[in-house]
Amino acid sequence: MATATASPSSAGVPVGPGLSMFDPIFIGIDEFGQPVYITLAYRNLLAGGEPGGGKSGLLNCIAAHAALSVDSRLVLLDGKLVELGQWEDSADAFIGPDITAALDVLRRLQVVMNNRYAWLRAHNRRKVTALDGLSVITVLVDEIAFYSATVGSKQEEFVALLRDLVARGRAAGIPVVAATQRPSFDIIPTSLRDLFGYRAAFRCTTPNSSNIVLGHGWAEQGYSATDIAPTNQGAAYLIAEGGIPRRIKVAYLSDSQIAGIADYAAWIRRPGTITTPPSSPADWGMAA
Ligand SMILES: Nc1ncnc2c1ncn2[C@@H]1O[C@H](COP(=O)(O)OP(=O)(O)OP(=O)(O)O)[C@@H](O)[C@H]1O
């Protein structure tokens, strides 16, 4: 009878769910109790709503999927340090309340994005795919206003870099997930809002702020995040490009659940376990 023995070649193979950022990401249930999935590889997501509405819960759900995806790299910008802080060990970069460091990392991402576009153009392609061997670099920002609200040249550069990343990153495998508790035109101008393929409005205090997240006119058509009770944290209206808003309840991960997943994610990402195919463009510095 054959016995199972670990061969030396299997020593570096991670054991785990083997998720991919190209897979649908489970984020909760809809009002009929059906599971809700989003696909982030080619879309950005904006979450807005008043403090305590549950935006960080959604970001943590996405961070968990990204951390468990062996084809994903994480870049985290967290002005409060504690919202995404538990994923630090799985992230390539974790930026706290430091605008200079945030600008450095966004400039670097812009270079990676430009390199990926040059590679796509050289290969007559329009977007990266799961077969390219390039990792999806998921950028999570909690909270946009923290880096952009005050007036100054650094803040202006932050807004310009974020806008460029949101506009061009998705085809290059660099989706952006950003949250704000200040859904107002100065933080999310329409031209920026419309670049987010997914928008989630958590409880808002005015129909106007709900519209700023979801899109103009939805509140008047009966889709207003002012309807969400303050006690119903994690409830939101989610709209996907070209669709109509649907009411969802985000799956909530407690601190200890996040700690467990983050610990496991850091383990499957330990040095030497995540590799890219030898001939992949990553070797040319595309994923630097
Ligand atoms: N999906 C959910 N189900 C149940 N409770 C939730 C859910 N999401 C959030 N909560 C509760 O609401 C609290 C606040 O949530 P969260 O920190 O995600 O809000 P937020 O919108 O990110 O707030 P802020 O803008 O201040 O960062 C959580 O500590 C939790 O107790």
From TrEMBL:
> What GO biological process term is on the record, naming one?
cell division
Q: What InterPro entries does the database record attribute to this sequence?
A: FtsK/SpoIIIE/SftA, FtsK_dom, P-loop_NTPase
**UniProt KW keywords:** ATP-binding, Cell cycle, Cell division, Nucleotide-binding
The record's Gene3D superfamilies line, in alphabetical order, gives: P-loop containing nucleotide triphosphate hydrolases (3.40.50.300)
Q: Name one GO molecular function term.
A: DNA binding
The positions annotated for binding ATP are: 49-56
Domain FtsK, residue spans: 33-211
Output the Pfam families linked to this UniProt entry: FtsK_SpoIIIE (PF01580)
Instruction: Tell me yes or no: is Hydrolase among this UniProt entry's keywords.
Output: no
Nucleus: is it a keyword of this entry? no
- Which PANTHER family does the record associate with it? DNA TRANSLOCASE FTSK, SPORULATION PROTEIN RELATED
Protein name in UniProt: Cell division protein FtsK
UniProt source species? Micromonospora craterilacus
